[in-house]
Amino acid sequence: MIILAALLALTVGAAQAQDQETWSAWMFNLTTMQMVRVNSWDETQSEPVTVTLPDGMMLQRPPVSFGYDGNRFAACVTDVTGTNFHVIIYDVPAAVTIMNHDLGQALACDVSAEAFNDDNNTQLTVGVFRHFEDDPAPEPAWELLVLDIGSGSIVSSLNPDLPPSGNAPSPSELGSIIPYVNYFSENVIAFRAIPYATDAMEAPGVVWGSGSLSYDIIDIYGRVSLHLLNSTGEALWIQQLDSLPPVTLEGLGVPANAVMVSNKNGERGAV
Question: In whole angstroms, what is the distance from residue 155 CA to residue 256 CA?
Answer without folding.
Answer: 37
